[in-house]
Amino acid sequence: MKVLVNEREIDIEGEITAFEVRSRIKSDADIVILNGFPIKQDYSLNEGDKVTLIKRGEVPKKEELEALMVSRHTPKVHEKVKKAKIAIAGLGGLGSTVALALGRVGVGHIKIIDFDVVEPSNLNRQQYFIRHIGMKKCHALKEILLEINPFINIEVVDTYVDKDNIKDLFEDMDIVIEAFDGAENKAMIVREVLLQTEKPKVISASGMAGYYSNNLIISKKINTRLYMCGDFKNEAKVNEGLMAPRVGIAACHEANMALRLILGEEV
């Protein structure tokens, strides 16, 4: 019988269980994953089963990590996600949260763009830590993303986005995620990406301030290249700021919309 153990094919005579494989091959493994799912009780193995043995605190090899992603996502989904190229413009509460979600699902190429630095006031909703205060957001976020998945390609662009560099920044991307502050900046990037490029689809967000109902935040298709997420009403203003929960909900709408576009589920 042939089974895969940590992506290495082995021949086994007779019957064997997952825990017996652990005892033979990696007895110090804390976690046993059978065909993509962590198991707490032992199972008999069948021809073609995949067993992944993980020791806590030990970074898996690239092939092992990818195998785990494939088993979770299914091969068809994982291959599409791995080939995708997504740009995130603005790395605040929206952009940093979108980036982490896309990094966790294994998007193969993520371009992160921002010229700003991490400030203490950012920590109420953005995915940074005290150790990042004073660092450029793009460099701090790359550090975090590589802690999540060291095998994806993170392209860092430390620049201010305006209409003069839109084409160079985005024309080769599959998807552009708008994550700016301010209505004028949001409108500018959406308008100019649609005007100056032909390929990328754009996902924008509007309306996520305060602590209103989660269910007011939605995703909708505007046209063949533009998608919007948010409640389209509640902008940040005096006595009604941006807070982690609703910003995070809107950001995950953007990330999930990007995943749906990658997989051809744009309707």
TrEMBL record:
Keywords: Nucleotidyltransferase, Transferase
Signal peptide start and end residues: none
A Gene Ontology biological process term: cyclic threonylcarbamoyladenosine biosynthetic process
Top enzyme category: transferase
Entry keyword Signal: no
GO molecular function annotation: nucleotidyltransferase activity; tRNA threonylcarbamoyladenosine dehydratase; ubiquitin-like modifier activating enzyme activity
Alphabetized InterPro entries for the sequence: ThiF/MoeB/HesA, ThiF_fam2, ThiF_NAD_FAD-bd, ThiS-like_dom, Ubiquitin-activating_enz
SUPFAM superfamilies attached to this UniProt entry: Activating enzymes of the ubiquitin-like proteins
Top-level lineage group: Bacteria
Annotated ThiS-like ubiquitin domain residues: 1-57
Record has Metal-binding as a keyword: no
EC number: 2.7.7.73
Residue stretches making up the THIF-type NAD/FAD binding fold domain: 71-265
NCBIfam families from the UniProt entry: PRK08644.1, thiF_fam2
Protein name: Sulfur carrier protein ThiS adenylyltransferase
Source organism of this protein record: Clostridium beijerinckii
Lineage: Bacteria, Bacillati, Bacillota, Clostridia, Eubacteriales
Gene: thiF
